[in-house]
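User: Show me a protein chain along with its predicted structure.
Assistant: Here is one chain, sequence first, then structure tokens.
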Amino acid sequence: MASGSILIADDDAAIRTVLNQALSRAGYEVRSTGNAATLWQWVAQGEGDLVITDVVMPDGNAFDLLPRIKKVRPELPLIVMSAQNTFMTAIRASERGAYEYLPKPFDLKELVAVVGRALSRPRGQAPAAGQPEVEEIPLVGRSPAMQEIYRALARLMPTDLTVMITGESGTGKELVARALHDYGKRRNGPFVAINMAAIPRDLIESELFGHEKGAFTGAAARSVGRFEQAEGGTLFLDEIGDMPMEAQTRLLRVLQQGEYTTVGGRTPIKTNVRIIAATNKDLRLSIQQGLFREDLFFRLNVVPLRLPPLRERSEDVPDLVRHFFNLVEREGLPRKQLDADATEKLKRYRWPGNVRELENLVRRLAALYPQETITGPIIDAELEPASPAAVAEPAAATAPATEGLSESVERHLLSYFGEFKDRLPPPGLYHRILREVEAPLIAMALAATRGNQIKAAELLGLNRNTLRKKIRDLDLQVIRTPR
């Protein structure tokens, strides 16, 4: 039988009654109140082994009370509940030291389970304020860059707006799309993902919209498309920049009209899905190259969301490492930790493969090394053979390149002209090529100076106002991070 004293604060008497009954049946001693002042009095007097509180109280806000409670009783578990079901509320709760956040309405069995976990946790192991248990949240990181993402997600949760997620490969675009679905209005519906780059060009329309029996050779039966599978939920279009032009035209028509027909079908089918798209390409450049429809871009880019590469949020590396070590431990691999030297080396690494590369490294460390503590020399051995120049050390800047920039650009242009075969590229090639080189150059300078525009302008040899104008014209996002 469970044991412990629970303090409940909620101004709704009916909710207090339900919680009292559920927790009492589970064997807990329960006291409840409808105001924050009484809750604070009980806590200050040393009463209770756990607190459950609503955010909005008649005489105050729980977010103002939580820091005071953590100050006088830092090990007291705090569970926050709220009808304001947004990602931001969850983040604010965790920032103020809550053990768990439960959006109303919630399952009483889930509440009892959370209470049990909180009270069974050994004292002294409570997460510090602002440091939620990493494995319990869908997105990991407390850097300024990730806080911006969290704030954007919180605003998007109660909407059905179409979102375009951009970012390098491995930054977690599908994870963000899943968070938007799992914490949003359509969380009870299906989440369906489709990778445009992984499907043969001639099958994309069938994959998206389905096909009728006999629609083409090999179509032996009717097949349901991803739009139909995602009905009432979310359709995630990954690598949207790789969608062929003819499929773009059909997708645009669906977004405009809210209906589609299967391949080989004639009857329009109404659709009710939320669209989230993602790409690691610069779609504005693809538009200039004639590879992506501008009208489709504007239909998809209702809310742009850029995920920062890991090198722009290196302070998140320790949290991510702990998160992945916890994951692999639950999968049966030995428990590991990093020493200070290893942590610093990982924070200085450039991570061309971003978070996915870090996860693979952590799994490799857990599987291959017998020692519990991973040291700096082990990290050197794992990283340097694969990509010595990827570590952001001073010597790396002078490492000889196997191919000069001019040769690299020439090779790129040969490939680009080859895509058009006997046709010429669209007009404006000179400015497109300059923009393609200029954008990553400025982005790298900003990343190297941690977003300091004065230092970046000096590094590039530009006037500061000129740099600001180029950042605005190129639509670059500046993330300022402390050293």
